Amino acid sequence: MKNHTLDLTEINQAFRQRAATKGWQAYHTPKNLAAAVAVETAELLEIFQWLTDEQAQQLKDDQDAKNRVADEVADIVMYLTELCVRLDIDMPTAIAQKINKNATR
Questions:
Q1: What is the C-alpha separation between 105 and 100, in angstroms, rounded?
Q2: CA torsion angle for 90, 96, 98, 102 (degrees, to 10)?
Q3: Who's near 23: CB < 8 A, 6+ residues apart?
Q4: Confidence label for 6 from pLDDT (cuts 50, 70 and 90)
Q5: Which superfamily does CATH assign the domain made up of 28-103 to?
């Protein structure tokens, strides 16, 4: 796996530019963005729904399946990033704090 750094600002700028072009920004309320995350997560789960663990692992060798998974992952990240912007949540800080909370359990 290649190790690339995510630039959340760049991701969000591209997301917002596309939304502005399509006139979608009015719909990007926190509630709607949370719903979009749930829908996209369900679409990701659908890919794996009836697979065994072994079959799911083998998706890494099926480029079409990997592309479908990647599309859903990208949608989830874009919606989560915009949700964080709308609610003034610093995602890297939130993740670091959650990792620390989990470490104390």
A1: 9
A2: 180
A3: none
A4: confident
A5: MazG-like (1.10.287.1080)
